[in-house]
Amino acid sequence: MAEQTHPPHFSATGSRAAAVRLEGLLDTHHDPAYGEAVQVAPLVQRVTAANPSPFTFAGTGTYIVGGPQVAVIDPGPDDATHVTALLRALEGRTVTHICVTHTHSDHSPASRALAAATGAPILGFGPHPAIDARRGAGESPALEEEPGDWDFVPDVALTHGDVLAGDGWTLECLHTPGHISNHLCFALAEECGLFTGDHVMGWSSTIIPPPDGNLGDYLRSLQLLIDRGDRDHVYWPTHGPAITSPVRYAGALLAHRHRRTAQILECLRDGPTTIPAMVVQMYTDTPKMLHPAAERSVLAHLIHLASQRRVTSEPAADERATRYALA
Ligand SMILES: [Zn+2]
Question: With bands split at pLDDT 50, 70 and 90, how would you rate the model's confidence at 144?
């Protein structure tokens, strides 16, 4: 699921201005070939579910990794047509691992149907974070993010550094919280490729929905990927096309967040204000229907700035009336 990007309203400051602009790198050309097994690398195929939306782009891309024995990454939404297409693509092969990057409803629910059909274990970081129940209370969460998959329970709990060994492939688990606290990326050493889930996507930046979504975690998880250097030649996100200049792209995402932070501080320089007022000022090119999502993104930035003691708030009964000020 994605955060809307737009041309920055304020200019970036400092050395980060030299970083490549995210807007120039976004790639929205993508042929999902719904229901077909598309070969994206010698060891990797992708079958895309027909669940396009403003948050899932062209839909959920389920990856099949291996040869005669495979891992499946992000089985996708609870959608019988997609599960049927996936099982067709898996015919004649054995599924040994069902891996899940995180517990949003466009990623993990089909793991149950796939496990029932194949007998393979489901592997993931853990259940959907309980704190997420607070998110969007009284609002319209559907406009902010895909809902949680509250029924998800992995057969095997994965943690950072775990290595899954299959038939001719290995997947190393990287814990990458930020978008959601239970997010994992999977590194396929044999192809120098990284399955990035919703942590890094090529068509848009990622939304960080508080309270479970955490910008500080997200920035650290981006740095984790950047620090891997040229170990990853390609990123395969769950939504959209492959990213073929991964480190440059992750650096642009980082710079994008620093620019957003600079924009917010610029808004606050004019005096205390609310999130809706800041969104109107900053997201000038974003359709109004996406402003609730933009408001959650600005909130994520403000929570991060408050944790750094750069911003204070006067909480109001209505969260949207809370006024923020420079510390
Ligand atoms: Zn997600």
Answer: low
Here the CATH number for the domain that contains residue 183 is 3.60.15.10
150 within a domain of the structure (yes/no): yes
Q: If you average pLDDT over residues 292-310, what whole number do you get?
A: 94
Distance 321 CA to ligand 1 centre (A): 27
Tell me the average pLDDT across 312-316: 92
Cα(73)–Cα(280) distance, integer angstroms: 38
Alpha carbon distances (Å) from 182 to 13, 203, 212: 33, 22, 9
Question: Which structural domain, as residue segments, surrounds residue 279?
Answer: 271-326
Q: One-letter amino acid identity for 115? A: A
> How much is the pLDDT for 13?
36
CA 1 to centroid of ligand 1, rounded, Å: 5
- Mean pLDDT score of the chain, rounded to an integer? 90
How far does the centroid of ligand 1 lie from the alpha carbon of residue 214, in Å? 13
Please tell me the distance between residue 159's alpha carbon and the centre of ligand 1 in angstroms: 18
